């Protein structure tokens, strides 16, 4: 398959999204451009609250932040015909093409969000050298979601161009807020995959070499992202220390005890206290403290065990120091169990590609956490099949690093393999 023009478009899209990164639930510019392209290609669009349950959006920015970013998006290239659909921060899109021929419903998920990282300006950093480095301080596509969004548009282009050769229905899901595992659950609760027979999520990189493909990655850990706040009572540290209730000590005690949670005999666990903020002055008993915590486990049950221990420790620390506490889950992801029925199709397509040197059917290597697992679990629960595949790419630096960059040859490779999988799956009855 020769797609020189598409290869150029993929790079153009990817570099544009890279230059204008948007973090979770703020992907307004990105989503408006994606929607405009999908509409032109003839897909039926569902957007915003139609594909996201507001009650299940975790860690969503407040109204002030959302409104400020809306104005930024309007001023920085958002498509004006579509931006209003995403103005409240519900930035999901589901694009459907119905062939009006008997066949299954096949869905592909692509995430769109960036990270709160300041991108490198070193001369050797390709985005800086080539002029598409992030224009925003402290925001960067440092995980490849700009590539994923572009791959989704490339797949849409091939599907639209060859729709007469397809059967059934094809759904392309563009998801916000994968970072922090916050966005997928809201789309699942809005029933966007309730009719899906085959589901495929994908990622570039994750330790897979250039020109290699992993058709089923089962290495994702279940996770919970938890914000915990403690509220005590301030007092003069020299004059009346006994009249204060120390929220900082409660948070510190909680942090130390969380780090000592017993491991689980049935699989790996993780616990990390990434942030602790407390107090307002050296001579004031701290009346407030906040922790940002994440738990992980080999399975959802093991992660639940760690999460419950965190909750118990927070209660105990608050009681010990006579302070109030609040615990909020701001992100979650499930463990992953790919379906060989659909992974084998990806594997076959990769083996048939003259651009791929090696394809692995299944890997259990650790790959962090992913909320695409909510989609996968829902599809499998309804009798369908789901997999998470990885397209290898040469990385300039690791994921979530200020010098992260990919080999853009991977874009077309991924599009072609996903399109070939769509051809094979849509023909299954």
Automatic annotation (TrEMBL):
Q: Which InterPro entries match?
A: Amidohydrolase, Bact_exopeptidase_dim_dom, Peptidase_M20, Peptidase_M20/M20A_hydrolases, Peptidase_M20_dimer
Return the Pfam families for the record. M20_dimer (PF07687), Peptidase_M20 (PF01546)
Where is the Peptidase M20 dimerisation domain positioned along the sequence? 227-312
Q: What protein is this chain from?
A: Amidohydrolase
